[in-house]
Amino acid sequence: MNDFLPIFVLLVLASGLVSLVLLISVLFGPRRRARNETKLQPYESGMRPIGPAQRRLPVRFYLIAVLFILFDIEVVFFFPWAVALRELGWAGLLSMLIFIGILEAGHFWLWRRGALEWEKMDK
Amino acid sequence: MPVVVEVTLKSAALIFVLLTGFAYLSLLERKFIARLQARIGPNRAGPFGLLQPVADGLKLIFKESVTPKGVDKPIYFLAPALVVVPALMLFAVIPVGKGATFQLASDLNVGALYVVGVMSLAVYGIALAGWASNNKYAVLGGLRAAAQMIAYELGMGLSVAAVVLMASSASLADIVAAQYPEQYGGILGWFLFRQPVAAAIFVIAAFAEVARAPFDLVEAEQELTAGFMTEYGGMKFALFFMGEYVKMIAVSALFTTFFLGGWSGPFVNEAPILSVVYFTIKVVVCLLAFIWVRATLPRVRYDKLMDMGWKVLFPVALANVLVTAVLILLGLPGYRL
Domains in chain A, start-ordered, CATH in brackets? Predict the structure, then answer.
């Protein structure tokens, strides 16, 4: 647990700093009443905003997020293996190759299905 | 001195140095870009414009804190914090000099994993800022930023994995030490020369992670105004700004640690304080490269950016890790510890 102590301390100090900065702007900044609704309107290049901003999003963003989770877990598995490779020897490399083989098959399949095409994904 | 007090003092000093560094990095960027564009840059506030960051900061402090209508208030105020805090926390594991004195969490043996993990936390801040702002530009900017950062994180994670493979340790102090084995003379041991592919991938991914030119599509002003920070003003904007610059310093420090031999240099054994000087010099050179690239390259198109992340960077990084593993197991010179 002691190993992580500096990280917690840094977290507390950094959060304190951020709160202080936010507090400063409230304390020192002027507070003027909004005379009309325009001041508090979201910025939309000078037009009145049409409809809510949080509308339905292109599905490709969800797809990318899901793919990321899959492959990022793969990357995380690389770290303990990388630390221990010199002890594991060729057997370690072989097991990793099998693991990567399965995942890369998936990656390749996604590629061929067009899941990685940003422009044509709508089809 | 109790450990807690010592650690607190060190952390406070670290944060102070980083904030000063951030302030003067913003001045350095304006000055350097001005020179590259045959201008002079800020030179009115103090000698050579040295008081410019102070003037900028004071101006932002005295701005009104406007909260637009319809924002999701708790998230709206939390988001800038979620960008700044992880950027500062990255420095907990970076050895800025020789020995445990200059590394905050020196006992942590999962440094590289911690770095990759904490770096990705900033995505939350940006995506949430975009979502909470009740602004269409902000939503699009936030989404773009999130998709871009996670796509390039894969490449970055794998390039760091190649470095860990070379050092057989995930502790950043060990990684620095592994770049100076007996059989190499001086800088030839740097992973920049022994892992050039990983270094190149790290650089490209770093630009995308920090979202700076040529990958600054997050705030492509012609399309998205200011992207996820459109509705942020005053000190809330300053926090995002701070987050970007501190992350830039952090990424430069990481590149120095992973590929440029960290704090090492001649005579560090005789005078340990020199190691901090060498580290600072290397980081500043990386930062100047960051700025130079911004002044030189145009912005990349978004679909090209995503293509590059998923179809080039990720497979190349994966292949690099495997080739490195084979070469290590064959015990080739240059791949021994």
Answer: 2-122 (1.20.58.1610)
Residues of B in contact with A22 (CB under 8 A): 77, 80-81, 235-236, 239
Q: Between chains, do B225 and A43 touch, taking CB under 8 Å as contact?
A: yes
Q: Helices in chain B by DSSP H: which ranges?
A: 3-36, 52-61, 73-89, 111-132, 136-167, 172-178, 191-194, 196-210, 221-224, 234-259, 273-296, 302-307, 314-330
**What is the average per-residue pLDDT within B243-270?**
86
Q: Which of A121, A51, A118 is nearest to B217 (CA)?
A: A118
Among the partner-chain residues B68, B107, B168, the one whose CB lies closest to the CB of A3 is B107
Predicted confidence (pLDDT) per residue in B22-42, tens digit:
988 989 898 998 988 889 888
In terms of CA atoms, which chain A residue is nearest residue B134? A53
* pTM to 2 decimal places: 0.88
Task: Determine the Cα–Cα distance for residues B245 and B65; give it in Å rounded to an integer.
Answer: 22
State the sign of the Cα–Cα–Cα–Cα dihedral B165, B170, B176, B180.
negative
Beta carbons within 8 Å of B265's beta carbon, 6+ residues apart? B274, B275, B277, B278
Question: Rounded mean pLDDT of A24-33?
Answer: 79
What's phi and psi for B160, nearest 5 deg? -70, -35
At B121, the pLDDT band (50, 70, 90 cuts) reads: confident
Cα separation, B225 vs B233, in Å, equals: 13
Kindly report, residue by residue over A97-123, the tens digit of the pLDDT.
Answer: 898 888 888 888 888 887 777 766 544
Half-sphere exposure of B157 (CA within 13 A, CB side): 28
